[in-house]
């Protein structure tokens, strides 16, 4: 798993770690029951505080993406398809809200936006 962090993104480091791990889980780069790097190892690898990695792991565990077994480490939790769908719906909603704001600023009608969506879905990009 390769995590690339950006100090200039405006997104907190722990959230960048969370997002990278979620994407690795969604893409099956990380498989169910696969062991994650220890908090300290990942912190050393990323050259950040282990508290930052711990916060990311805690958030991921709370959201149901990983599970921690005391004395053994953190593992990818069995996939909860409903959780994955909900996560992706939220991501789509965020993008649609951005599209809405851009369309209002540029005076692009709802019909024009719908037509773009229709074209994209027909092409299956």
Write up what this structure looks like.
The protein is mostly helical and 125 residues long. It has two domains: 13-76, Arc Repressor Mutant, subunit A, CATH 1.10.10; 81-123. The protein contains five helices and two strands; from the N terminus they run H-H-H-E-E-H-H. It has helices spanning 13-26, 39-46, 50-62, 81-105, 110-123; strands at 66-69, 73-76. The protein has a two-stranded antiparallel ribbon. A hairpin with a 3-residue loop joins strand 1 and strand 2. Helix 1 (13-26) packs across helix 3 (50-62) and helix 2 crosses helix 3. The protein is elongated, with a radius of gyration of 18 Å. The model has no long low-confidence stretch (mean pLDDT 92).
Number of domains: 2
> What proportion of the residues form beta strands (DSSP E)?
5-15%
Calculate Rg over CA atoms.
Answer: 18 Å
Global morphology: elongated
* CATH architectural arrangement of the largest domain: Orthogonal Bundle
Distance between the termini: 27 Å
In terms of topology, how is this protein built?
Elements: H1 13-26, H2 39-46, H3 50-62, E1 66-69, E2 73-76, H4 81-105, H5 110-123
Antiparallel strand pairs: 1-2
Question: Can you summarize this structure?
Answer:
The protein has two domains: 13-76, Orthogonal Bundle (Arc Repressor Mutant, subunit A); 81-123. It has 125 residues and is mainly alpha-helical.
Overview features:
2 strands; mainly alpha; elongated; single chain; Arc Repressor Mutant, subunit A; 125 residues; two-stranded antiparallel sheet; 2 domains
